[in-house]
Amino acid sequence: MCTCAVGQTKCNHMTALLLHAHKNISVTDKECAWCKQKFNDDDRICTINELNPDKSNFVIKKINFDIKQMCFEKLKSSNHVVGFTWLLTPELRNSLQNVSSLPPLESVLFSEELRKILDKKQFLNHYFNLDFKQIEEIAAQTEGQSDNIKWSFYRQYRITASNFSKVLKSVKRNRYLPSLFKTLIGSYNLEFHRSVLWGKNHEKVAIKEFKEKLNIHVQPTSIWLHSSGLIEASPDGLAVINGKSYCIEIKCPYKSRNQVLEQCLIEHTDCILKLNFNDNSSHTYILNTDHEYFSQIFMTKFVGCILVVWTTKSMVAIQIDANDDWKNNIDILLDFYHKQYVPWLLK
Question: What are its GO biological-process terms (predicted)?
Answer without folding.
Answer: DNA repair
